[in-house]
Amino acid sequence: MELPVVDLSRYLQSSNSESDPQLGTDLLDSCREVSRILKETGALLVKDPRCSAEDNDRFIDMMETYFSKPDEFKRLQERPNLHYQVGVTPEGVEVPRSLVDEEMQEKFKTMRNECKPHIPKGPDHKWRYMWRVGPRPSNTRFKELNSEPVIPEGFPEWKEVMDSWGYKMISAVEVVAEMAAIGFGLPKDAFTSLMKQGPHLLAPTGSDLSCYNEEGTIFAGYHYDLNFLTIHGRSRFPGLYIWLRNGEKVAVKVPVGCLLIQTGKQIEWLTAGECIAGMHEVVVTSKTKDAIKLAKEQNRSLWRVSSTLFAHIASDAELKPLGRFAESSLASNYPAIPAGEHVEQELSVINLKGKESSS
């Protein structure tokens, strides 16, 4: 199955126009299509004219250079005292939820063989770098979720590249959030108003394919994301699988110049389960091995970098079903709770307070 691509250009043109603030029928249809796809698949491919393939390449080039540095250099940016919320997280620290969640493990037994995920045996084989994107609140109950950034030595372009790509991806998420809200029959700013000053994280991962290249090797074990929406640029090595709402397992192909958006737990909460947090994993496949062979022939880096950004609801904002979703028969499964408290509850399950695990 190929995920459809939604071009954001026309919505952006409409939202920037002062002459006619009303959306036409075709744009309303596009918004309904966005909400439908998020509901049915938990994933959406978008093309945003503000986020070019060159922007993604510039970011990945820098991260490949960083991750290829010696481990002792990278560990200088490690901040375990801040629960790895900023700086680097070494390989072997992030634990996939499916390794510790007994309910999820029971679910595996009921899945058809062709739809089962790879079963993790331990922590993920990936490094991660956490970089805060956007302003933080001056007063918050959740200081640990809003820490200052760490910049590695020898990368004078670091802050500019991280901030530039991070802001562009957040901007794309905000447009999708607006379109989804309209498609769900909510006010346009129903989601984006709650995202203001959220603890958004640009959190690229790096996996060393020169060491880990056997088919079936797990880089990100089967899990969902605990935030609102997750966005990725295109990786240079395939291996991402998602699970549709009907249980079907799908290999994701991100076209050049496109971005992948995935639903997280916070949008599930806000829609009372109309959208559910999308399950996914990243593993070495035969196509990954083909890409490794080509990279070797072209003398390119063998680090698999994901340009992942976690977009969050503001930590002090209340998570609860919005608008018509408050009347849903499932609304009682999603009681009101501060978003930051919900994040901490989710993290306590995987025993890594202050840290997400994602692709």
Automatic annotation (TrEMBL):
<dbReference type="GO" id="GO:0016491">
    <property type="term" value="F:oxidoreductase activity"/>
</dbReference>
<keyword id="KW-0479">Metal-binding</keyword>
<keyword id="KW-0408">Iron</keyword>
<keyword id="KW-0560">Oxidoreductase</keyword>
<dbReference type="InterPro" id="IPR027443">
    <property type="entry name" value="IPNS-like_sf"/>
</dbReference>
<dbReference type="GO" id="GO:0046872">
    <property type="term" value="F:metal ion binding"/>
</dbReference>
<protein>
    <recommendedName>
        <fullName>Non-haem dioxygenase N-terminal domain-containing protein</fullName>
    </recommendedName>
</protein>
